[in-house]
Amino acid sequence: MTEILDIIPFQFLGADARRRLLDTLEWHNHPAGRVIVRQGDLTDDRVFLLASGKVDVIDHRRGPDTKVAEIEEGHYFGERPALFGIPRVVEIRAQTDCQTAHMPGSVFLDLVRNEPHMAHALTFILRDKQGVFTEFDRFLAEVRLGAQRGHIVIGKLLPIYKQLYPSLHRLGHSTEVDYNALAYVVRRLPANVTNTFMWFATDEIPVRYAAAQALFTDTTAEARRRVTWEMMPGKSLVLLRDGMSDLLDLVSLLCIYAVEARKLRRRLRDGGVLCALASEEDAAAALAGAFSPYEVQRLEALWPGEVHRRLLDMSLHHEDISIHVYRRTDNYNSAHAETWTQQIALATRSLLGAHPWELPDDFPVHIISSNTHSVTNCLSPWLQENAERVLTWGREAHPEIMDLPWEEPWDRLAALMRPFMAAHPEMVPIRMERDAAVRVQLDETAFTGIRVQLFDLQALRAVEADPHLPRPSGPGLIVNIDYAFGQQAEPIVANLVNLFGRRIRSINVLGKAGGMRGKRGDILVATAFVNQSQDVMQSLPQGVDLERLRSRVKGREVHCGRVLTVLGTVLQNDRLLHYYDKLWDCVGLEMEGSYYGRQALESRELGLIAPDTALRFVYYVSDLPLEHTATLAASMSPLEGIPPLYGITREVLTAVFE
């Protein structure tokens, strides 16, 4: 009987686990022709070990009784419903008389979670032998091939894209318009997406377009700082920020847009609709005839006051989208990153009176990658001095914010700052002038898309900051940079390390990530990163005070563990996410962490920074990609996002100040 557990990957179980499993297994004999697993079954998640005989793998989707493979004794089958939460993909039928031993899916998952050697072996089987990433790898290969050839046609990519079944694009295969997914991409694509046919994507601005800012119209997206200009009607120039992440993101967003635009266009087939959309007077009636009141409301939220024009664009466009890729070098944006770094050097001299290389060797420098506004608000003397004014305005203008059950009252200020400044634009320069006592802000990003603020810790000792922060213990410098995008993070950190060297005392990454477990607003502390593109893991030294962090985010779980760095958040599907959740035990996913971490660890090994340089990677959960109602396409409420963001910001700043 024990030979059954010589089947790989069960062969790698420890002695105790083997004994427990043998007690659990149920044995059955199957005559030839018996169906063991029914295709499409939603209730059966058993995992089978084939002790003797052969079974056929039948896929009725390809035709009645179509055999696609056979499995011989000494192998297992049926693991995917337990691992990926899906129905039975194929039918398994006894080819000969055979004997099986099966376990419940829950027992199999316990083995995966608690027996690391078995789980590790299973990752190789699933990825290399069974091709669970086939669709993802194929899409990635097509994009890379198109980039090498210099031309990508979105229409040709769509059949491959749709086979991914991205978690963010739940209705991709439905005739129903996915307004959540459409809203997500519209905020991240340039405003002229509805009438652009050709996207000229380049890592460097060609010499002939050196004056692009003066020649062309800026159409950079609201939620992607990827510099974009409209060169002429129908053609736009996109400045890529890194080697692959940015291009893959652009292509993925355009795929979602094309799928949803096609659905909208098909709702407008009536010939008279085009003429009606071309007339503002008749457009409302045309919309009412093609869409429900709820749908019109969603469209108006996407394109206020210009829905009829956008739909007219789509009706004429037919998603004929091409991307011309022009790459001058293999090292994307090195010139931009170097120019950006030079600007930081000059700003350091402006703030501290010395270039980075002129600072004392023991002068502490702390690198923080954040969304910039949380750090800026926590360290703003203007905000502390005007807190009551902002709150008084909030009680009148935004009682819906003020009346929320805030655990930390100060967080109301953070929630009010954006609407307050929008209502009082005259206060923007006044705040900038006051906050200049402690910081320098670089608004010019040298086309990296990464804004920077430098804070003088000595100056911060003399002002009031967030009341939950201690005063800095001595002089020093905080270099607070906006999020890098994907692989862009690695050269950015490398340039900062080369600029400040062994003066760097800590490298901190705080921001948002997708959660594999828990709920929105929970906290993730990365103890290691798993890089999806290579399926490799790098461990991190833990520099976060977990007890203090938990006290700052009461009522929220703090999940410590591995975090997945993905090539593109848009491309992740349920199967990939379950794979990294169950087999790699990842607690979350994001796009930059492993690139930050690899460069930081490499710099320590090379002696470019001190061996005791603290590394902190802490995130709040902004979305749950495996929960249909909590993906990135669904916006967060203030209570879900602000308290955890400011909680982790205060924790990082406290560690820096101490």
Brief rundown of the structure:
With 658 residues, the protein is α/β, with parallel strands linked by helices. The termini are far apart. The model has no long low-confidence stretch (mean pLDDT 91).
In words, what does this structure look like?
Helices cover 41% and strands 20% of the residues. A hairpin with an 8-residue loop joins strand 4 (54-58) and strand 5. By secondary structure, it is an alpha/beta fold. It has 26 helices and 24 strands. The protein has a six-stranded mixed sheet with strand order 9-14-10-13-12-11. A five-stranded mixed barrel has the order 19-23-22-20-24, surrounded by four helices. Strands 1-8-3-6 form a four-stranded antiparallel sheet. The protein folds into three domains: 2-129, Jelly Rolls; 137-326, no CATH class; 334-379 and 438-657, 3-Layer(aba) Sandwich (Rossmann fold).
Helix and strand arrangement:
Blueprint: H1 15-24, E1 26-30, E2 35-37, E3 47-52, E4 54-58, E5 67-72, E6 75-77, H2 80-84, E7 91-94, E8 98-103, H3 105-114, H4 116-129, H5 134-149, E9 151-153, H6 154-162, H7 179-186, E10 198-202, H8 212-215, E11 217-218, E12 228-232, E13 235-239, H9 245-266, H10 271-277, H11 280-290, H12 293-302, H13 307-317, E14 322-326, H14 334-352, E15 365-369, H15 373-378, H16 381-385, H17 387-397, H18 399-402, H19 411-423, H20 427-435, E16 439-442, E17 452-456, H21 457-460, E18 477-481, H22 489-500, E19 504-515, E20 523-531, E21 536-539, H23 546-552, E22 558-565, H24 574-582, E23 586-590, H25 593-605, E24 614-623, H26 638-657
Parallel strand pairs: 10-13, 10-14, 15-18, 15-19, 19-24, 20-22, 22-23
Antiparallel strand pairs: 1-8, 2-7, 3-6, 3-8, 4-5, 4-7, 9-14, 11-12, 12-13, 16-17, 17-18, 19-23, 20-21, 20-24
Helix pairs in contact: 6-9, 7-9, 10-11, 14-22, 17-19, 22-25
